[in-house]
Amino acid sequence: MAVTGWGVMVAQRAGEGGLPRRYDVRPWDKKMMERDLRLTGLKRGQSDNPIAPPEFATNSIWRVYKKF
Questions:
Q1: Which residues form the signal peptide (predicted)?
Q2: What's the predicted TM-score (pTM) here?
């Protein structure tokens, strides 16, 4: 049982960049996670650089859906 629990914890942390899993993620948190993903390439990555990289101007979070 302990090995299985440890394996689940390792799998969850691998998906979160080595950090503990987030609980109670609100819409604001999701938007910040998308922004961090666009800036750094990691969902939980953060940057202290005040100037965004040039590719940040062209990538977008707008979702495009096809009409039926």
A1: none
A2: 0.59
